[in-house]
Amino acid sequence: MKRILIFTLSTGGGHNEAAANLKDEFEQYGYTVTINDVIQDFNKMTASVIINFFNVVTGKLPKLYGMLYDFGNREKVNKLFSESTRKVLVEK
Questions:
Q1: Is the pLDDT of residue 23 over 90?
Q2: What is residue 27's predicted lDDT score, i.e. its pLDDT?
Q3: Do residues 61 and 53 lie in contact, with contact meaning Cβ atoms separated by under 8 Å?
Q4: Contact, 6 vs 32, CB < 8 A?
């Protein structure tokens, strides 16, 4: 059976809803889908800092959020972040 692992992050912005919709769609085609909320792989303090930072930046500093979002979409930055995240998750 074909399997898919979807990573999501509970920081708002609809990440979990998008993951659930993808899961539903893939399951219609016979895939077995698991959703992993990456924030749960960190300790509670780190998760809290990430979530609070996200909420403050998106709610009170939307221009800064936009700049960080654009910065994160650069290929080199994205590759570095993806590789760092992968290493943490592989250990878990």
A1: yes
A2: 97
A3: no
A4: no
What phi and psi values does residue 85 have, to the nearest 5 degrees? -65, -40
Q: Is the Cβ–Cβ distance between 9 and 15 less than 8 Å?
A: yes
Helix (H) or strand (E) holding 6: strand 3-8
pLDDT of 33-72, one tens digit each? 999 888 877 778 888 888 888 888 888 999 998 988 888 7
- Contacts of 8 by beta carbon, 8 Å cutoff, 6+ apart: 15, 16, 18, 19, 35, 36, 37, 38
pLDDT tens per residue across span 10-19: 877 788 999 9
Contact partners, residue 73, CB within 8 Å, separation at least 6: none
Task: Specify the DSSP class assigned to residue 12.
Answer: S
In the numeric block, the tokens 């959020």 are attached to 65
